[in-house]
Amino acid sequence: MATSLGTTSPNRREHARDRAVRAAVAQGLLSAEEPVAALLDTAGIRASAAALTSAFAAVTDAPVLHAFAVKAAPLVPVLRLLYEAGLGAEVASPGELALARAAGVPPSRTVLDSPAKTHAELRQALGLGIAVNADNLQELARLDGLLPSAAGAPPVGLRVNPQVGAGAIGAMSTATATSKFGVALRDDGAREAVVQAYLDRPWLTRLHTHTGSQGVPLPLMAEGVRAAYALAEEINDRAGRRQIDTLDIGGGLPVNFASDEDTPTYAAYAGLLAATVPGLFDGRYALVTEFGRSLLAKHGTVLARVEYTKTSGGRPIAVTHAGVQLAVRTVYAPGSWPLRILAYDAEGRPRAGEPAVVQDVAGPACFAGDLLATGRALPPLRPGDVVAVPDTGAYYFAHHYAYNSLPRPAVYGFTRAAEGGTVFSLVRRAQTLDEIVAESGGGRPDALTA
Ligand SMILES: *Cc1c(COP(=O)(O)O)cnc(C)c1O
User: Fold this and answer.
1) What is the CATH number of the domain that holds 260?
2) pTM of the model
3) Disulfide: which of 233, 324, 330, 411 matches 38 by Cβ 3.0-4.6 Å?
4) Which of 210, 218, 256, 289 to mutate to test the pocket of ligand 1 (most atoms within 8 A of CB)?
């Protein structure tokens, strides 16, 4: 068999999704009260976790902690699923740490990164035994005051920015010359200051880098890792011992939003790393990775009812309930983040057999830019139809934006039952109107007038 462990063929993914849409409609997941919902493919998430684990196991015997970047899908059941699949959690705020803890991810499998950790956050993480990556030299100085007292302190690292350059999307590129993350390694005097920081701190045993996210090509990511590896070697040489014992190489594998194919693969990236940074995998360093988007994106689908259809300036428009509140990047940066739109009829069957019509697919918000797709050739949509927006498992519906006080939608996991049906399980229920009011100062209406 040519297929490696954990990959999902595009056809299988399409069939699984079509079955799930049909079942979601049949089981009433979409209703007048909840005209939008999100689905997560449980088996797909497991398959991606297995693909990641096996890709690194194929190139190294070194211990590897794959710490899922919680920000990509901050849902407790997702973190639990990934933990049971052998992964850990990378957290970057007290909220994300709380989610990882609620999911039962132990401190030994948790890593704290963030450019703005407070004293209290650092103290809590160290107290819990969570590995910390400092962002900058000021944070290291802060840790000086906290660490010597913390007996049996967890591992601490420093994030460096190798300044290897930007990918296709500036806002997703973290290794530019002026990125806000890490110590900028090529700035005047910075490299020497970093080496000295390690020589001064025997407890500083990790080195961290994360070169970017969507839009950063694999060779550029590998260059960033190569630069961090070279720095670790230099520091260990200067220290005369293997002070740095763990390299945290970050996440950032880009995702293919154009089709159901998983490209690039974890295996391709691991192979490229092995070729670009041969010493990385020879067992002298333990490894941490922090993949987010690539583990979840392909396994999430937004479903929304078409409420109305109309024509404006000759352009057909389908007005749906999925818009800016769920697909923030798509709506604000449609050039960088085009999403596919799939058309289903009111029973959840794929719409087919009619010539495609060039149309816009709009969201519900009172904002002219709230368009999921413009000028897209799709089967003619009708009121009551269902549109599906695939590849939204990371950074979309789990990143709800409260525009127009539109509620957070329900999220359901789905699996295939032994008898062939689809079983849904509620991951997060929809936000209620009472909750929206309460979270909007509803308990203190007189706060500005009393
Ligand atoms: C966002 C982030 C990640 C995950 O990036 P993805 O593109 O979702 O894989 C990993 N590490 C750090 C430090 C991050 O900020």
Assistant:
1) 3.20.20.10
2) 0.96
3) 411
4) 210
> Is 71 close to ligand 1, i.e. is its CB under 6 Å away?
yes
Supply the pLDDT for residue 3. 40
Rg (CA), the chain: 23
List the CATH number of the domain containing 392. 2.40.37.10
Which residue of the set 366, 368, 447, 450 is catalytic?
Answer: 366
- Assess whether the C-beta atom of 210 lies below 6 angstroms from ligand 1: yes
Domain carrying residue 397: 298-439
Output the CA–CA distances (angstroms, integers) from residue 46 to 12, 52, 261, in the order listed. Answer: 15, 10, 16
CB 73 less than 6 A from any atom of ligand 1: no
Spatial distance between the Cα atoms of 270 and 285, rounded to a whole number of angstroms: 15
CA of 45 to the centre of ligand 1 (A): 17
Residue 227: inside a domain, yes or no? yes
- CB of 252 within 6 A of ligand 1: the answer is yes
Tell me how far the alpha carbon of residue 293 lies from the centroid of ligand 1, in angstroms. Answer: 8
Q: What is the dihedral of CA 91, 97, 102, 106, to 10 degrees?
A: 70
The model's pLDDT over 5-52, given as tens digits with 9 standing for 90+, comes to: 456 788 889 999 999 999 999 999 999 999 999 999 999 999 999 999
Write the pLDDT tens digit of every residue in 185-223: 999 999 999 999 999 999 999 999 998 788 889 999 999
Euclidean distance between CA atoms 136 and 160, whole angstroms = 8
Q: Over the stretch 111-156, which tens digit does the pLDDT of each residue have?
A: 999 999 999 999 999 999 999 999 999 999 999 999 866 567 899 9
pLDDT score of 148: 67
Q: Residue 36: which H helix or E strand, with range?
A: strand 36-41
Q: What is the mean pLDDT of the chain?
A: 94
Distance in angstroms (rounded) separating the CA atoms of residues 223 and 208: 14
Do 422 and 347 have their domain in common? yes
Q: Are residues 422 and 346 in the same domain?
A: yes
Ligand 1 mutation pick, 52, 71, 133, max ligand atoms within 8 A of CB: 71
Q: Which atom of ligand 1 is nearest to the CA of 133?
A: 13
Q: Is 189 a catalytic residue?
A: no
Write down the pLDDT at residue 1. Answer: 33
Count of the separate structural domains present in the chain: 2
Cβ of residue 251 lying under 6 Å from some atom of ligand 1: yes
